[in-house]
Design a protein that fits this description.
This protein is an alpha/beta fold. The chain has twelve helices and 17 strands. It binds pyridoxal-5'-phosphate.
Length: 387
């Protein structure tokens, strides 16, 4: 038995290497990866962009620099993220939860002069596992029996404009936090109408809009940021996961009118903005942020969607709903026990997916996956459903 903290359902096999959209175990069994390290490995495995970035970085002799030490990649990535989003200033950290912590801290501090600290988050939301991030995450399972969680958070029914209007209190609410495509919640897609209501309310009451782009950002929906599918302009944007395609990085992008009021020393991170991770993330971002590549994500999404709809028709008694935007997709089953069995069977048959909300199989392959690899995965899924 290993000595790992037993908080995961560990795989029965040991993974040894990866290439493209495939992983290989120690017996050389091949697995098609429809999970990508939980929506992280956006360029798959053994990608030249990542490999060359690491090789080039090695030539500098530098692994770590302090937060105050400037270098080209830290500056260029911040410029790129800012230019392509809300033109804000960038704070670097190492993970999604840290970029959410930064967003919460910045929003609450911004509101403190008017005694506003309430954050409205959404039902089925997930924003990370630190205590602060849990305070804005909906799933009670993740935050039970750990004592008091920071308060002043209300949860609005996702996609329910009336509920949002009821919950907003202009005297108390400082921010609305939303994943425009909820990942852990089972791939729930925000409606245009709800997004518009959020933006209208934010404009009317000077409430900050925080977009959590940690899972659905960095090209996953076929746009560089998931919020760009909606008529909104977030004040604060959180990123991580696919931005580094495997190298840990978090980024929080904060609009200038907010960031300018903060004093030096307000926040920090020892490892944030290191040369290796910002070099890789910059190259990853620029690779994804090209029209033909983003369009290819939408084309592959259509292939996946049409095939899944065919499969749903054949298994209408089992599959409740298919939800998809770009290359993030949820297949919701009526029966959670069945979904779990299927999830395990898919791994045995060589297809890795993610099981969320106990009844939904989530598909988040590398964005570089090919159309024929998608079809191979669909074949495994279909065989498994038929067996
Ligand atoms: C939308 C969203 N926000 C935040 C997080 C937390 O990110 P991390 O696990 O890097 O802390 C996740 C992770 O799954 C996520 O999907």
């Amino acid at each position: 038995m290993h000595k790992l903290f037993n908080i995961y359902n560990f795989t029965k096999f040991h993974i040894k290497k990866g290439n493209g959209s495939y992983l290989f175990d120690s017996k050389n069994k091949k697995y098609l990866d429809f999970s990508a390290g939980v929506a992280v490995n956006s360029l798959g495995y053994n990608h030249p962009i990542i490999n060359n970035s690491i090789k080039e970085q090695l030539k500098t002799g530098i692994i770590h620099l302090s937060g105050s030490q400037l270098h080209k990649y830290k500056i260029d990535l911040a410029d790129t993220l800012s230019k392509n989003s809300n033109k804000g200033d960038v704070f670097y950290s190492n993970s999604g939860a840290e970029s959410i912590e930064t967003a919460i801290k910045v929003a609450r501090s911004f509101g403190s002069k008017n005694n506003k600290s309430q954050i409205i988050s959404m039902t089925s939301s997930f924003h990370g596992r630190t205590i602060g991030a849990l305070s804005v995450g909906y799933n009670k399972k993740y935050k039970s029996n750990i004592g008091p969680i920071p308060g002043d958070v209300l949860f609005c029914n996702f996609n329910d404009s009336l509920d949002l209007k009821k919950k907003i209190n202009p005297k108390k609410t400082i921010a609305i936090l939303i994943e425009f495509v909820q990942g852990d919640g089972g791939v729930n897609i925000c409606t245009k109408e709800f997004a518009k209501t959020i933006q209208d309310i934010c404009n009317k009451h000077k409430i900050l809009l925080i977009a959590d782009e940690i899972q659905a950002g960095a090209g996953r929906t076929g746009k560089m940021f998931a919020y760009k599918n909606y008529p909104v302009s977030p004040d604060i944007i959180t990123m991580a996961k696919g931005l580094g395609s495997g190298i840990p990085i978090g980024a929080t992008i904060i609009k200038k009118n907010i960031s300018k009021i903060f004093q030096k020393g307000f926040h920090g991170s020892t490892y944030g903005g290191g040369m290796l991770q910002t070099r890789i993330a910059l190259n990853v971002f620029n690779f994804i942020n090209k029209k033909p590549f983003l369009n290819s994500i939408l084309l592959k999404s259509k292939v996946l969607e049409l095939k899944l709809i065919e499969i749903q028709k054949e298994h209408i008694d089992k599959i409740k709903e298919i939800r998809i935007m770009g290359l993030i997709c949820g297949i919701e089953f009526y029966d959670a026990k069945y979904a779990k069995l299927l999830f395990k069977n898919l791994i045995e048959k060589g297809l890795i997916t993610t099981l969320v909300q106990s009844n939904t199989i989530r598909i988040t392959p590398p964005l570089t996956i090919t159309k024929s690899e998608i079809l191979s995965g669909i074949k495994i899924l279909s065989n498994s459903l038929n067996s």
